Amino acid sequence: MAQLDRNLAMELVRVTESAALAAARWMGRGDKVRADQAAVDAMRLLLDSIALDGVVVIGEGEKDKAPMLFNGERIGMFAAQGPSERFGREVTFDVTKLPSVDIAVDPIDGTRLLSLGLPNALSVVAMAERGTMFSPGHLVYMDKLAVGPAARGLIDMRRSVRENLEAIAKAKNKNVSDLTAVVLDRPRNSNYVTDIRACGARLKLITDGDVAGAISTALEGTGVDVLFGSGGSPEAVIAACALKCLGGDMQCRLYPRDEAEKEYARQMGYSLEAVLAINDLVKGEEIYFAATGITDGELLRGVHYTSGGATTESLVMRSRSGTVRRISATHRLSKLRQVSQIEYGG
Fold first, then answer.
1. SS3 8
2. Would you call 136 helix, strand, or coil by DSSP?
């Protein structure tokens, strides 16, 4: 197997940029399905242009009639080898020289946000060595606790909200009342809202997009100190990849919605009481992450259109080096249409 000795994150950002550009035309048009399809199509095409042998671990679930990026799908030039309808030409190379990776994709984190023209929609891809990403399968929700580098190693989901807030405050040399906690605004998280308020901490409720919420705990200038609450399991794994790159920390616990999901967990050998540490969610230190804003948000600026072009802002990270890049790009759409199969609209 080839070593992951090149910075794949710099190649992944082309993937998220393309997905964001394809999806951004659907901002506020109320059509989540077509927006998601545009992002998925662009993301798949660009992923298949990268020299790697990838398996989608976090995707759209089992393959259905729609050409989604589904769990278990082979991605990259390995999948495109031989006669390829996607490239319109024969693609051949030595597959033993391709890095074998797990891939987590969220073509649009915040599909509802994009469809309504609301802030904070992102396109996200994470990648790690083969066999290192946790696969939640049919268990679509997890309870989450995420912090930045200052509180790494100091959180514990088995403790109360107050105890965790006090530990975070001490690590950051703050009072609990100075802390800001982010919680996904759902009825299932009402206990967190009550407990945070009782502690006197500041509370920020978000309607969607807890990948961005988790990442914001580890970036300077966001004003966010901790994320609590139940959200999507795929988003938990993607956020764990980003937080490992940033030096943050995360703990999760599986959150089954009904008896059928509890039984599925038992069949899979998953403990519903066990706390999953960040290294359980994604092992190793060869992790890559890229995100591009689709609509303007606190984490990233969205796609903006100019005369004949568009601009994007992306966050690109690699865990081994610890390097975090913000990339502002200008795209000449007339040029892209000449060389790409992606429908950028306009």
1. coil
2. coil
Which of 273, 213, 272, 275 has the alpha carbon at shortest distance from 248? 213
With beta carbons less than 8 A apart as the criterion, state whether 300 and 292 touch.
yes
Residue type, 72: G
- Note whether 47 and 55 are within 8 A (CB): no
- pTM given for the model: 0.90
pLDDT tens figures, 258-298 = 999 999 999 999 999 999 999 999 998 899 999 999 999 98
pLDDT for position 311? 96
Place of tokens 């390829």: 84
pLDDT in tens, 45-92: 899 889 889 999 998 765 444 456 888 888 887 655 544 444 455 555
Q: Tell me which residue of 102, 104, 110, 85 sits closest to 20, measured CA to CA.
A: 110
Instruction: Tell me how far the alpha carbon of residue 108 is from its chain's centroid.
Output: 9
| 284 backbone dihedrals φ, ψ, rounded to 5° | 80, 180
CA-CA-CA-CA torsion sign (47, 50, 55, 57): negative
Rounded Cα gap, residues 20 and 43, in angstroms: 9
What is the length of the chain?
346
Helix (H, G, I), strand (E, B) or coil at 115: helix
Beta strands in 177-319 (DSSP E): 180-184, 202-206, 226-232, 249-254, 276-277, 287-293, 304-306, 309-318
Check: CB of residue 293 under 8 Å from CB of residue 20. Answer: yes
Name every residue whose Cβ is closer than 8 Å to that of residue 83 and which is 6 or more positions away in sequence: 90
Percent helix, percent strand, percent coil in the chain, to nearest 5? 35, 25, 40
Residue 81 or residue 165, greater confidence: 165
Residue at token pair 């609590």: 228
Q: In sequence order, what are the residues at sequence separation of 6 or more whose Cβ sits closer than 8 angstroms to the Cβ of residue 116?
A: 28, 30
Backbone angles phi, psi at 258, to 5 degrees: -155, 180
CA angle 49, 126, 221 (to 5 degrees): 125
Query: What are the b/e assignments for 182-209, b being 16+ CB within 10 Å?
Result: bbbeeeebeebbebbeebebbebebebb
Chain center to CA of 105:
7
Both structure tokens of 62:
């089992």
